Amino acid sequence: MHPPTTETRFLEGRVALVTGASRGIGAAIAVQLARRGARVACVATTAERCADTVARCNAHQEGAQAYGCDVSSTPQVAAVVEAVVKELGGLHVLVNNAGITRDQLLLRMSEEDFDRVIDVNLKGAWNFLKAAARPLMKTSGRIVNVGSIVGLTGNAGQANYAAAKAGIVGLGQSLAKELAGRGVCVNTVAPGYIATDMTSALDAQAAEALKARIPLGRIGTPEDVALAVDFLVGPGGAYVTGQTLVVDGGLAIGG
Ligand code: NAP
Asked: Is the pTM of this model over 0.85?
């Protein structure tokens, strides 16, 4: 998609779709891609929830639009992708970032908690990949799925989340093989501990203990993750596919 370039607005004239773009990591990714010149389709549970991100994107590149759907619903996702392609004029970058947690030790975890996390975090990504594959094949586009280090290491109390995030890695590697012939690169970004609404439930003591295990000595920001996505969808990512880029300050390797 991109010839080697030092151009900073390497997504000028291109369309990027980011799920979970209303806040946290997804909002930072959407704004970063707009900074690169992309017209960004911001997706969350409702379009209204993306109003702030759309305004921030438009400050860098006009043409951002908000869309609402439940990512776990195959027909709702198909309708959103169809609308984005029609209204924004194609699709060049897909970032599957929407996600939830419903933490509980296995013996206390309900079937509903397991199913919902798989449905949103794993099937949600599959829904967008399925709906967006054809438009992305047309543009030799880029796909980034947001996983987690928990999908690589496991985590007590997160069997549902870890299974979904491990699934994201296998899904991405399979599609990297399926879509390579059409010039589409598919990669996973696996964040560690990032300060967002998702992690704000941790009490101060648990947060300090976790921070103490991060070799780089600080909790990650949504922008740390957005810059990893930026690399993968930019010139540097042209020859990278089927990979998992861990963005965790060294947490997974331990201190
Ligand atoms: P967050 O602040 O809780 O935001 C979650 C986003 O996902 C929101 O935009 C939310 O939209 C959207 N979303 C949730 N369920 C949805 C559904 N059914 N349909 C459509 N949109 C839905 O989370 P975050 O921390 O930014 O996490 C973003 C991604 O990074 C997730 O995949 C998460 O698993 C992963 N991650 C996060 C961390 C971390 O430390 N924060 C670490 C590793 C991986 P609404 O605003 O409409 O609810």
From this structure: yes
pLDDT of residue 254: 86
Kindly state the helix (H) or strand (E) to which residue 152 belongs, with its residue range. helix 150-153
Of ligand 1's listed atoms, the one at least distance from the Cα of 220 is 40
**Residue 88 burial by CB count (10 A; 0-12/13-18/19+): exposed, middle or buried?**
buried
Ligand 1 atom closest to the CA of 225, numbered from 1: 30
CA of 25 to the centre of ligand 1 (A): 7
**Residues lining ligand 1, judged by CB closer than 6 Å?**
19-26, 44-45, 49, 70-72, 97-100, 120, 146, 148, 191, 193-194, 196-199
| Catalytic residue list contains 193 | no
Q: How confident is the model at residue 135 (pLDDT cuts 50, 70, 90)?
A: very high
For 174-183, the pLDDT digits (tens) are 999 999 999 9
